Amino acid sequence: MQRRSFLSWGAAGLAALTSAVGLSLGAVVRYLTPSVFYEPPQSFKIGNPADFSFGPPTFLAEEKIFVFRDREKGFAVASAVCTHLGCTVGYFQSDERFHCPCHGSVFTAEGAVQHGPAPRPLDWFEVTLARDGQLRVDKDHTVPASYRLMV
Amino acid sequence: MNPIRDAWQSIFRRDPLSTDKGKSEFVFLNVWLHIHPAKVKKDNLKVKHTFYLGFITFFLFLILVTSGVALMFYYRPHPPQAYQDMKDLQFVVYLGSFLRNMHRWSAHGMVICVFLHMCRVFYTGSYKRPRQFNWVIGVVLFLLTLGLSFTGYLLPWDQLAFWAITVGTNIGSYAPLVGARVRELLLGGHTVAESALLRFYVLHVAVLPALVTLLTMVHFWRVRKDGGLSRPVWKLKDRQSPELVAIGGAESNAPLAAATASQDKTYGLMEVVTGKPIFETVGMDEEEDAVFSYPYAFFREGIALLATVTTVMAVSLFWQAPLEEMANPAKTPNPAKAPWYFLGLQELVSHSALLGGVIVPALAVLALIAIPYVDLNPSRRPADRKWAIRAFTVFVVVNIVLIVVGTFFRGPGWTLVAPWAHLAGAE
After folding, report:
1. Which end of chain A is more exposed for a tag (fewer CB within 10 A), N or C?
2. Is residue B200 in a domain?
3. Tell me, what's the ipTM?
4. Number of structural domains found in chain B
5. Per the CB < 8 Å rule, is B333 touching A101?
């Protein structure tokens, strides 16, 4: 075998082997990535505006959100998932703060980090009025803490 | 003509054990025992040299495989059945609770013993040439042990499991670029839910045990190929280590010429190839304290096995593996803690998730792997390696302190509390 043909065949073989291994690895990662997530929808209805009282926020455990209703300003929805490591925060009326049980992060009523390791404020989700008059929350759309829905 | 003797000899075709040949053949004609050398050095068998921690770790792994397979007969990796099966194991299945306890306590024991084994290997300098790579395999086995513990932790599907895994996988998502993707792959979704349980189950019962088994084989094989167990540190006293005579060659000013090749016993390719073997050589004076593995080594290993099994069984009789209420994604227990061996990590994470959860642990693992390649001091004598010992001791103490703080000194909201607050139920 000629030196030239040995080198070119060798290079071609090596390239083929590398791409085969690379493609196989990619296929494995893709295989392990679910194409369908059987998870609750990110956008959902939470009920009629009249269902929510004024004053302290209503905690919806299933959806992990707090629904705020203010007489002047209207509706706002905050995420109950701590931005640090995903524990569920609680709202305490006594100091009007969110407290995370896992690592002691404290958030103000506006969701801003006041204390602890949380890297960013709590998320606020878009809340709109659906056609049937119910409130609709969309977790895929975050909004500024000042966002309010007037009903 | 004795058919029974013929049958016996068809299975065990060695000479009688009363002969030296029989004792040797007992080891190297047996597939399960041939990982041992036919003869071992008596001092290497001393408890104060190794504390048999490697053996104990291996025996705990055997207990874990056995009890784990037993538990699999009654476990369905899907919520809420997973939790119901735990309750069945606890109250309905014959010996179910006992087997679960054995599995749980052996798992904790294995994490502890792997760590102690690593400490022993470090303090005796046994990671040094030619054993550098076996240390690396050991570090990987340590990480796999933690992986097995972590994946097993979710399977009961109780509150403890659910929130420990929620916190644990969120720590991983702080890794730059790939973090969120890795978490999605691991959980098969975006929250700890049924696909996460199934994935952790498959990793726990198939993928990780297979990796541990394979690497354990390599680990043991390397122990043999690197010249058997390292010599006890006290054997190195007051003279140049025989290992260094053989291996340090060029740099050593020991009387290399005096120890001629013909007097050395080498474990290598010997006459087949030229060049010095990388393996340890043993001088003739060392031969004197060599004993046959049968019965000396096997007897001691048998004692270690019995002691391990007995201890695990005794602990499992008296202490119940914890099981809290069923996992409830809506309610985070306060405080929510990771498994104890990750509480040091959680303590770091409580200060900074990226630094404490990703950067520091990654650097720690890299440092562990690099130890044999960075520490080029050829001496294994403690007196010659004071700074290495000090540095490693700091590492060990910091780990223990972080875990102790995370376990006993952290209360609701991760605030500092006195350790007795947990006992008094002051929460």
Report:
1. N
2. yes
3. 0.85
4. 2
5. yes
